[in-house]
Automatic annotation (TrEMBL):
This is Rhodanese-like domain-containing protein. Pfam families: Rhodanese. InterPro entries: GlpE_sulfurtransferase, Rhodanese-like_dom, Rhodanese-like_dom_sf. Residues 18-107 form the Rhodanese domain.
Amino acid sequence: MSDQIKTVDAATVMGWLKDGSAVIVDVREPHEHRAGHIPGATLVPLSQFDRAHVPDATGKHLVFHCQSGRRCGPASAKMVAGGYTGDIHRLSGGMAAWMAASGPVER
C-alpha cells in the first residue's frame, strides 16, 4: 500500500466534518448510498470509479468510505495510480463503524 493511503477512525472524520476540513467520497453503489450516507459525501462507485469525479480536496482531508472498509482500498489505489499526489484517508470499518460511532447519516 502506498504511503499516501492511510486509515482513519470515525471520530477523527467527524471532527474534520465539523470543522469543514474533509471531502468525503462514498465508493459504494448507488442503492447503498441512497439507503444512507455520510452528509455531504460524493458518490463515486468503485464499479465505475473515475478519478475525474472525485472532488478537489486541496487543503482538506480526502476521505474514502464504503460499507466495511474494503472497497475504499482499490479506489484509493486507483487514485494513486492515476497520479493523485495527496494523502487519501480510508474510513476504518466503513459505514458500519460510522454508524456504530453514532455518526450522522443522511437519507
